[in-house]
Amino acid sequence: AQLVEYGGGSAQPGGSLRLSCVASGFSLSESPMTWIRQGPGDRLEWVASIDNGHGSTVYGTDVKDRFTITRDNAQNTLYLQLNNLKTEETAMYYCAKGYCSGVDCLLRGRGTQVSVSS
């Protein structure tokens, strides 16, 4: 099983990015999925999760109402829409299989870098 993230890059404060995570070796429809991030010198931080049933979502307090996690089971791809980005959200963003919050994520990708600056 493997996860590969795409879509990172540079954005200005208030800008937007859309991250993708392509899964292989397992079906996305069979597992909840999670996005986590790690800023420079910071711990891994849970961002959002989505279930594998009705698509119920949960978000961290800091990103709620600005980030949106979605999934396309047909494409075996997970997404994270980042809106109204803040400079402090510069981080490596990872997708992970299952519900997890950081070091407990057993399967995650190599990450995609998001840099927010003016």
Commentary on this structure:
The chain is mostly beta strands and 118 residues long. 0% of the residues lie in helices and 47% in strands. The protein has no helices and ten strands. The strands form two sheets. A six-stranded mixed β-sheet has the order 2-10-9-4-5-6, with no helix packed on it. Strand 5 and strand 6 form a beta hairpin. The protein is globular and about 40 Å long. The relative contact order is 0.32. The mean pLDDT is 96.
Could you give the order of the helices and strands? EEEEEEEEEE
The biggest beta sheet is recorded as: 6 strands, mixed
* Terminal residue distance: 38 Å
How many strand segments?
Answer: 10
Q: Radius of gyration in whole Å, from Cα?
A: 13 Å
Strand content: over 45%
Described by the principal axes of the CA atoms, the overall outline is globular
Helix content: under 10%
Which stretches are low in confidence, meaning pLDDT under 50 for 5 or more residues running? Answer: none
**Structural class of the secondary structure composition?**
mainly beta
- Placed side by side, the strands forming the largest sheet appear as 2-10-9-4-5-6
Per DSSP, the total helix count is 0
- Average pLDDT confidence is 96
Q: Strands, helices and their partners?
A:
Blueprint: E1 2-6, E2 9-11, E3 17-24, E4 33-38, E5 44-50, E6 57-59, E7 67-72, E8 77-82, E9 91-97, E10 112-116
Parallel strand pairs: 2-10
Antiparallel strand pairs: 1-3, 3-8, 4-5, 4-9, 5-6, 7-8, 9-10
Entry keywords:
118 residues, mainly beta, 6-stranded mixed β-sheet, 0% helix, globular
